[in-house]
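INFO batch 0412 | record 1 of 1 | parsing
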Amino acid sequence: MNFGSRAYEGVREFLAETGEMVILTGKTILSALKPPYPYGGEFVQQFLFALKLCWFPLMVATVAFGYGAPGLQAAQVTSLFGTVDRLGGFFVLASIREFAPFVTAIVTAGVAGTAITADLGARKIRDELDALAVLGVDAIKNLVVPRFLALILITGLFNVYALMLGVSGGVVATVVFHEPLGPFWATFFNNASVADLWGSLIKTTIFGAIISIICCYKGMSAKGGAEGVGRAVNEAVVMALITVFAFNYVFTQTLLATHPEITQFR
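INFO prediction complete | emitting C-alpha coordinates
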Protein backbone atom coordinates (compact mmCIF):
# COMPACT_ATOMS: atom_id res chain seq x y z
CA MET A 1 0.00 0.00 0.00
CA ASN A 2 2.86 2.31 0.85
CA PHE A 3 4.62 1.49 -2.44
CA GLY A 4 1.38 1.99 -4.36
CA SER A 5 0.86 5.40 -2.79
CA ARG A 6 4.38 6.51 -3.65
CA ALA A 7 4.02 5.26 -7.22
CA TYR A 8 0.69 7.06 -7.59
CA GLU A 9 2.17 10.30 -6.24
CA GLY A 10 5.13 10.01 -8.58
CA VAL A 11 2.94 9.48 -11.64
CA ARG A 12 0.59 12.28 -10.61
CA GLU A 13 3.49 14.68 -10.09
CA PHE A 14 5.03 13.73 -13.43
CA LEU A 15 1.77 14.28 -15.30
CA ALA A 16 1.20 17.58 -13.52
CA GLU A 17 4.68 18.83 -14.42
CA THR A 18 4.27 17.66 -18.01
CA GLY A 19 1.01 19.57 -18.31
CA GLU A 20 2.54 22.71 -16.82
CA MET A 21 5.47 22.52 -19.22
CA VAL A 22 3.11 22.12 -22.18
CA ILE A 23 1.24 25.22 -21.00
CA LEU A 24 4.53 27.07 -20.58
CA THR A 25 5.49 26.09 -24.14
CA GLY A 26 2.24 27.52 -25.51
CA LYS A 27 2.61 30.73 -23.54
CA THR A 28 6.22 31.10 -24.64
CA ILE A 29 5.40 30.69 -28.34
CA LEU A 30 2.50 33.14 -28.10
CA SER A 31 4.63 35.65 -26.20
CA ALA A 32 7.39 35.35 -28.79
CA LEU A 33 4.99 36.07 -31.65
CA LYS A 34 2.84 38.71 -29.99
CA PRO A 35 4.18 42.31 -29.87
CA PRO A 36 5.84 44.13 -28.23
CA TYR A 37 9.28 42.57 -28.44
CA PRO A 38 11.32 43.91 -25.50
CA TYR A 39 13.61 40.91 -25.27
CA GLY A 40 16.06 41.71 -28.09
CA GLY A 41 18.95 42.65 -25.83
CA GLU A 42 18.37 39.70 -23.51
CA PHE A 43 18.17 37.35 -26.49
CA VAL A 44 21.54 38.51 -27.83
CA GLN A 45 23.07 38.24 -24.37
CA GLN A 46 21.77 34.70 -23.83
CA PHE A 47 22.89 33.64 -27.31
CA LEU A 48 26.44 34.91 -26.78
CA PHE A 49 26.46 33.42 -23.27
CA ALA A 50 25.53 29.96 -24.58
CA LEU A 51 27.99 30.31 -27.47
CA LYS A 52 30.84 31.20 -25.11
CA LEU A 53 30.08 28.36 -22.73
CA CYS A 54 29.40 25.57 -25.21
CA TRP A 55 31.66 25.88 -28.23
CA PHE A 56 34.78 24.33 -26.70
CA PRO A 57 33.10 21.42 -24.81
CA LEU A 58 31.13 20.69 -27.98
CA MET A 59 34.29 20.63 -30.09
CA VAL A 60 36.07 18.23 -27.73
CA ALA A 61 33.03 15.97 -27.28
CA THR A 62 32.18 15.82 -30.98
CA VAL A 63 35.70 15.01 -32.14
CA ALA A 64 36.06 12.42 -29.36
CA PHE A 65 32.74 10.77 -30.23
CA GLY A 66 33.34 10.93 -33.97
CA TYR A 67 36.87 9.58 -33.78
CA GLY A 68 36.28 7.06 -31.00
CA ALA A 69 32.95 5.33 -31.51
CA PRO A 70 31.96 5.42 -35.19
CA GLY A 71 35.52 6.17 -36.28
CA LEU A 72 37.99 3.74 -34.71
CA GLN A 73 35.45 1.07 -33.77
CA ALA A 74 33.71 0.99 -37.14
CA ALA A 75 37.03 1.18 -39.00
CA GLN A 76 38.31 -1.75 -36.93
CA VAL A 77 35.29 -3.87 -37.85
CA THR A 78 35.26 -2.91 -41.55
CA SER A 79 39.00 -3.52 -41.82
CA LEU A 80 38.37 -7.18 -40.98
CA PHE A 81 36.38 -7.46 -44.22
CA GLY A 82 38.54 -5.09 -46.24
CA THR A 83 35.77 -2.50 -46.54
CA VAL A 84 37.18 0.53 -44.74
CA ASP A 85 36.20 2.52 -47.83
CA ARG A 86 32.55 2.17 -46.66
CA LEU A 87 33.30 4.18 -43.54
CA GLY A 88 32.13 7.41 -45.18
CA GLY A 89 28.65 6.02 -45.78
CA PHE A 90 28.51 4.80 -42.21
CA PHE A 91 29.28 8.31 -40.98
CA VAL A 92 26.11 9.57 -42.66
CA LEU A 93 24.16 7.21 -40.42
CA ALA A 94 26.27 7.75 -37.31
CA SER A 95 27.23 11.42 -37.33
CA ILE A 96 24.59 13.28 -39.35
CA ARG A 97 21.55 11.38 -38.12
CA GLU A 98 22.47 10.58 -34.52
CA PHE A 99 25.82 11.49 -32.98
CA ALA A 100 26.00 15.17 -33.91
CA PRO A 101 22.43 15.98 -32.72
CA PHE A 102 22.89 13.93 -29.55
CA VAL A 103 26.23 15.49 -28.61
CA THR A 104 24.81 18.95 -29.31
CA ALA A 105 21.82 18.25 -27.05
CA ILE A 106 23.95 16.77 -24.26
CA VAL A 107 26.44 19.65 -24.23
CA THR A 108 23.71 22.30 -24.51
CA ALA A 109 21.68 20.78 -21.69
CA GLY A 110 24.71 20.14 -19.49
CA VAL A 111 26.29 23.56 -19.94
CA ALA A 112 23.78 26.20 -21.08
CA GLY A 113 20.71 24.43 -19.66
CA THR A 114 22.16 24.15 -16.18
CA ALA A 115 23.17 27.82 -16.25
CA ILE A 116 19.62 28.83 -17.23
CA THR A 117 18.07 26.70 -14.49
CA ALA A 118 20.47 28.00 -11.84
CA ASP A 119 19.93 31.63 -12.91
CA LEU A 120 16.14 31.44 -12.89
CA GLY A 121 16.16 29.30 -9.74
CA ALA A 122 18.23 31.89 -7.90
CA ARG A 123 15.82 34.60 -9.04
CA LYS A 124 12.93 32.50 -7.81
CA ILE A 125 14.25 31.89 -4.30
CA ARG A 126 15.19 35.58 -4.00
CA ASP A 127 11.55 36.44 -4.87
CA GLU A 128 12.66 38.42 -7.93
CA LEU A 129 10.05 36.69 -10.12
CA ASP A 130 7.29 37.65 -7.68
CA ALA A 131 8.60 41.22 -7.65
CA LEU A 132 8.43 41.32 -11.46
CA ALA A 133 4.83 40.12 -11.32
CA VAL A 134 3.96 42.84 -8.81
CA LEU A 135 5.53 45.45 -11.12
CA GLY A 136 3.48 44.14 -14.03
CA VAL A 137 6.47 42.71 -15.92
CA ASP A 138 5.75 39.56 -17.91
CA ALA A 139 8.40 37.07 -16.78
CA ILE A 140 7.67 34.73 -19.68
CA LYS A 141 8.19 37.39 -22.35
CA ASN A 142 11.21 38.97 -20.70
CA LEU A 143 12.97 35.90 -19.28
CA VAL A 144 11.72 32.69 -20.89
CA VAL A 145 11.26 33.84 -24.51
CA PRO A 146 14.84 35.12 -25.05
CA ARG A 147 16.30 31.92 -23.58
CA PHE A 148 13.90 29.83 -25.65
CA LEU A 149 14.87 31.59 -28.89
CA ALA A 150 18.56 31.64 -28.03
CA LEU A 151 18.74 27.88 -27.44
CA ILE A 152 16.73 27.15 -30.58
CA LEU A 153 19.17 29.20 -32.67
CA ILE A 154 22.32 28.03 -30.91
CA THR A 155 21.49 24.31 -31.19
CA GLY A 156 20.78 24.62 -34.91
CA LEU A 157 24.11 26.37 -35.48
CA PHE A 158 25.96 24.00 -33.18
CA ASN A 159 24.57 21.04 -35.10
CA VAL A 160 26.33 22.24 -38.27
CA TYR A 161 29.48 22.76 -36.21
CA ALA A 162 29.14 19.25 -34.71
CA LEU A 163 28.56 17.70 -38.14
CA MET A 164 31.81 19.08 -39.51
CA LEU A 165 33.79 18.08 -36.43
CA GLY A 166 32.18 14.66 -36.27
CA VAL A 167 32.96 13.88 -39.89
CA SER A 168 36.53 15.09 -39.30
CA GLY A 169 36.80 12.30 -36.71
CA GLY A 170 36.02 9.82 -39.47
CA VAL A 171 38.65 11.41 -41.69
CA VAL A 172 41.25 11.05 -38.92
CA ALA A 173 40.25 7.41 -38.35
CA THR A 174 40.62 6.69 -42.07
CA VAL A 175 44.09 8.22 -42.08
CA VAL A 176 45.06 6.26 -38.95
CA PHE A 177 44.19 3.02 -40.77
CA HIS A 178 46.34 4.13 -43.73
CA GLU A 179 43.41 4.26 -46.14
CA PRO A 180 42.93 6.82 -48.93
CA LEU A 181 40.34 9.53 -48.32
CA GLY A 182 38.82 9.34 -51.81
CA PRO A 183 36.64 6.28 -51.10
CA PHE A 184 35.61 7.78 -47.76
CA TRP A 185 34.23 10.92 -49.40
CA ALA A 186 32.73 8.97 -52.30
CA THR A 187 30.63 6.72 -50.06
CA PHE A 188 29.84 9.65 -47.78
CA PHE A 189 28.29 11.74 -50.57
CA ASN A 190 26.65 8.70 -52.16
CA ASN A 191 24.70 8.04 -48.96
CA ALA A 192 24.16 11.63 -47.77
CA SER A 193 20.89 13.26 -48.76
CA VAL A 194 19.02 16.51 -48.25
CA ALA A 195 16.55 14.68 -46.01
CA ASP A 196 19.39 13.63 -43.70
CA LEU A 197 20.65 17.21 -43.41
CA TRP A 198 17.36 19.00 -42.87
CA GLY A 199 16.16 16.21 -40.59
CA SER A 200 19.27 16.64 -38.44
CA LEU A 201 18.84 20.42 -38.31
CA ILE A 202 15.12 20.33 -37.49
CA LYS A 203 15.62 17.65 -34.86
CA THR A 204 18.42 19.54 -33.15
CA THR A 205 16.46 22.79 -33.22
CA ILE A 206 13.54 21.08 -31.47
CA PHE A 207 16.04 19.65 -29.00
CA GLY A 208 16.95 23.25 -28.13
CA ALA A 209 13.28 24.12 -27.60
CA ILE A 210 12.78 21.10 -25.34
CA ILE A 211 15.87 21.86 -23.27
CA SER A 212 14.99 25.53 -22.85
CA ILE A 213 11.40 24.89 -21.76
CA ILE A 214 12.34 22.21 -19.24
CA CYS A 215 15.24 24.22 -17.80
CA CYS A 216 13.18 27.42 -17.57
CA TYR A 217 10.29 25.58 -15.93
CA LYS A 218 12.51 23.86 -13.38
CA GLY A 219 14.29 27.11 -12.59
CA MET A 220 11.10 29.12 -12.18
CA SER A 221 9.53 26.45 -9.97
CA ALA A 222 12.57 25.91 -7.73
CA LYS A 223 12.00 26.07 -3.99
CA GLY A 224 13.87 25.25 -0.82
CA GLY A 225 16.77 27.68 -0.95
CA ALA A 226 20.16 26.91 -2.47
CA GLU A 227 19.60 23.18 -2.03
CA GLY A 228 16.40 23.46 -4.01
CA VAL A 229 18.19 25.24 -6.85
CA GLY A 230 20.77 22.46 -7.02
CA ARG A 231 18.01 19.86 -7.05
CA ALA A 232 16.22 21.76 -9.82
CA VAL A 233 19.40 21.83 -11.92
CA ASN A 234 19.85 18.06 -11.59
CA GLU A 235 16.21 17.36 -12.39
CA ALA A 236 16.27 19.70 -15.37
CA VAL A 237 19.26 18.00 -17.01
CA VAL A 238 17.94 14.48 -16.44
CA MET A 239 14.44 15.31 -17.64
CA ALA A 240 15.72 17.25 -20.65
CA LEU A 241 17.95 14.41 -21.83
CA ILE A 242 15.28 11.74 -21.31
CA THR A 243 12.78 13.85 -23.24
CA VAL A 244 15.32 14.47 -26.01
CA PHE A 245 16.02 10.74 -26.35
CA ALA A 246 12.30 9.92 -26.43
CA PHE A 247 11.59 12.62 -29.02
CA ASN A 248 14.55 11.46 -31.12
CA TYR A 249 13.08 7.97 -31.33
CA VAL A 250 9.73 9.28 -32.58
CA PHE A 251 11.33 11.76 -34.99
CA THR A 252 13.75 9.22 -36.47
CA GLN A 253 11.04 6.62 -36.99
CA THR A 254 8.86 9.24 -38.67
CA LEU A 255 11.72 10.43 -40.89
CA LEU A 256 12.60 6.90 -42.00
CA ALA A 257 8.96 6.04 -42.65
CA THR A 258 8.35 9.16 -44.78
CA HIS A 259 11.71 8.91 -46.61
CA PRO A 260 12.35 5.20 -47.23
CA GLU A 261 15.09 5.99 -49.75
CA ILE A 262 17.47 7.00 -46.93
CA THR A 263 17.23 3.53 -45.41
CA GLN A 264 19.26 2.13 -48.33
CA PHE A 265 23.00 1.92 -47.78
CA ARG A 266 24.80 2.56 -51.05
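INFO post-check: The chain has a mean pLDDT of 86.
INFO record closed
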